[in-house]
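Thread: quick sanity check before group meeting

JM: Hey all, I'm pulling together slides for Thursday and realized we never actually wrote out the predicted structure for the chain we discussed last week. Dropping the sequence here so it's in one place. If anyone has concerns about the input, flag it before I start.
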Amino acid sequence: MPTARKCSSSSLSETLPFLPSSASIEMSSDAGESSSAARRTVFLGVDVGTGSARAGLFDEQGRLIGSASSPIQIWKEKDCIEQSSTDIWHAVCTAVKAACSLASVVPEEVVGLGFAATCSLVAVDSDGSPVSVSWTGDARRNIIVWMDHRAVNQAERINANNSPVLQYCGGSLSPEMQAPKLLWVKENLKESWSLIFRWMDLSDWLSFRATGDDTRSLCTTVCKWTYLGHAHMEVAREKDSHSMEACGWDDVFWEEIGLGDLVEGNHAKIGRSVAFPGHPLGSGLTPAAAKELGLLVGTPVGTALIDAHAGGVGTMESLPETESKDDVANEEAICHRMVLVCGTSTCHMAVSRNKLFIPGVWGPFWSAMVPEYWLTEGGQSATGALLDHIIENHVAAPLLANRAASQSISIYELLNKILESMMQERKVLFVSALTEDMHVLPDFHGNRSPVADPKSKGMVCGLTLETSEKQLALLYLATIQGIAYGTRHIVEHCNSHGHKIDTLLACGGLSKNPLYVQEHADIVGCRIILPRESETVLLGAAILGAVAAQNYSGVHDAMRALNAAGQVVYPSKDVKVKKYHDAKYQIFKSLYEQQLSHRSIMMQALQ
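JM (edit): ok, ran it. Output follows.
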């Protein structure tokens, strides 16, 4: 592990060529009468998710006044999942212009901009043009998407080295992290490897594309690239934020795994300078980027965050007013909370003042989300994606979808109604009890935490020949419960290793499903606070722009000002509910043990 040395300021600048924007959009606005009011102070957040680019505009109270989204293209071929940085930039520009138009926000009102994105891996050449990372050789496909699992073998080989840096990743690297993916490209796409001038996390690339400054974020580098952010711990504080020489790379690690060429040029290909999230980059928006986005040249842009971490920044200080007034000066209070960022996957974010090493859970990452706190990051690789998979692949799904559409509700709302009716028909005491004979291990895309087994498979126990809508409703409920038992497993594991988590905060699409939230509250046994603003990832990104514009002294200060609580969901007080879930939780844990046993038996049979 490298020792911290004095880090000097450095910055790289390059303006990329103009890219026109084009895409279809979806828009919403809460601007109301404010659109005709005097000039406002507006913070802009941009989030690039798995399926779309979104832009959100927030006022000085952290309220969303307008948003828009634009779809992005994705290619999926078995374990290889790819996207295009050109396509994504087009979508970003479209969404930003649409959001500003919808909310009647003029460029002069946007005082700062921040980007968040999935932790996907971008490859560009010395001119900033895309370089293919695809077997097809298609140059458009220059992004390996975060959920891509092509590098499982590379991850296993890297982990076998037992490098000291792995202790800051829960003891092992996931194939979703960047080092295994980089090694895969070097071993399989040699021509592309020779052409690539910069490797960047997607959110860092967006900031680079907007400003020409390729300073990387402590969030992306520490969480996904094995960068040891605490190398700066004794010489850097957020209040003195500046671009810092990247002194946290462990060169021995990169050489040991066969990627020593990335160390060359003072780590030019993977990052020569880093900064705290929200640090102002370059001179703000370049003329080209400002024209494409419809904003002013020089608009401040803050160093980026991974999308889940932006969700944490947009959520973690969302406390009821009675508590926030008492706890605002208590630096330890935030350490009792865990944020669930629930979307395609779920990230479980908790912070601590001291570093906590937790096997199977990523981190501890210094200053990767809340500056000067250590971040612990658990996760489930498929949650929203799993529920979609379960529903869409059921024979009853088309009919159910038609019924939902005819009622102008989502298929999830209809399933929730069906479950309520079934509870009445079967005269069970509570909805959860409908699944007494059905149990789900939700590892359909491996287990990220806490067992850190990418080879783990999903399991469903209790199937019959029935294919009705009611059977789908039961499978849907059992899957939600399986996901919630996974969260309980993560929370208990973290608390057994030094955390003191007693409150959950939930954001993201799944947090809008009341059944999903209540099952989590009942199963984990914690209250769940839902933020006032539903678009918390966009708010977290906007906070980066607010900090870059120097409207706040730092990210945590901005969080306290702009986060706000909405509904609070409490666990059931019925002891029978607790007893029921305790029993199902034991079955949940036994399913993985059974799988390991089955794996061992078959491995021996094939030897």
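AS: nice. Residues 1-24, 31-36 have pLDDT under 50 and may be disordered. The two ends are 39 Å apart (CA to CA).
JM: adding both to the slides.
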